[in-house]
Amino acid sequence: MKMELLVATHNQHKKEEIQQILGNEFTVKSLTDYNIHEEIVEDGDSFNANALIKAKYCFEKTGIPSLGDDSGLVVEALDGRPGIYSARYAGDHDFAKNIEKVLRELEGETNRKAYFITVLCYYDENGTQYFEGKAHGNLLTENKGFKGFGYDPIFVPEGYDMTFAQMEPEDKNKISHRRKAMDLFLDNLKGSNRH
Q1: Taking the CA atoms of the chain, what radius of gyration do you get in angstroms?
Q2: Tell me, what DSSP letter sits at residue 93?
Q3: Neighbours of 154 (CB within 10 A)
Q4: Which of 109, 115, 103 is nearest to 74 (CA)?
Q5: Which domains does the chain have, with CATH numbers?
Q6: Cis peptide leading into 153, omega within 30 of 0?
Q7: How far, in Å, are 1, 34, 45, 159 from residue 181 at the CA level?
Q8: Out of 70, 79, 124, 183, which one is annotated catalytic?
Q9: What are the b/e assignments for 65-102, b being 16+ CB within 10 Å?
């Protein structure tokens, strides 16, 4: 019996990435699959708050266990920016502009340390649970690679010499921040299914 999971996103790419990580035990659905097209207002002041807003909204709309995911890029030299504003840092979901802005702000900066973070909020009739994953790395001074999305073209994960955008999706999905959060989520689900 496959478990259905509603992921609070309209982003087909994110849905596919999550489906790939979770594998065949799950049927991952997005808001689009349920014909829910309203924009969820993410006005939380943290990744946790935004993930909760999304998961709660979906669960209340459909009654299906829902997963809210809030992710972002945290840059050490920029005091943690773009952080929760990652998707709309320079223009709403215009990642070319967002990347340009980050690179401009980092000009001449030798500290290129950054990490991607994903916070998942799982919301069902029993309430909420949070799972967090991080991928540490460094930022380049220019884009490399065309796979992936968001800030992937400038992010080189620790221990690698290529960006997330140069990796095959399955390789990225083995080490990504979303993967780490998903693994915690899966362990937790399997644990609760044993009882």
Answers
A1: 17
A2: T
A3: 25
A4: 115
A5: 3-194 (3.90.950.10)
A6: no
A7: 24, 25, 20, 20
A8: 70
A9: bbbbbbbbbbbeebeebbbbebbebbeeeebeebbebb
pLDDT tens digits, one per residue of 120-144: 999 999 999 999 999 999 999 999 9
Residue-wise pLDDT tens digits, 21-72: 888 888 999 999 998 888 888 899 999 999 999 999 999 999 999 999 999 9
In the numeric block, the tokens 């919301």 are attached to 123
Q: Retrieve residue 186's tokens.
A: 């899966």
Contacts of 188 (CB under 8 A, 6+ apart): 122, 129, 131
**Amino acid identity of 72?**
G
Structure-token pair, residue 185: 């989520």
Residues facing residue 48 across a β-bridge: none
Residue 20 has which token pair? 């790939």
* CB-facing half-sphere around the CA of 166: CA atoms within 13 A: 13
Two tokens at 59?
Answer: 């669960």
**Tokens 């019996």 correspond to what residue?**
1
Which helix (H) or strand (E) element contains residue 113?
strand 113-124
70 carries an active-site annotation:
yes
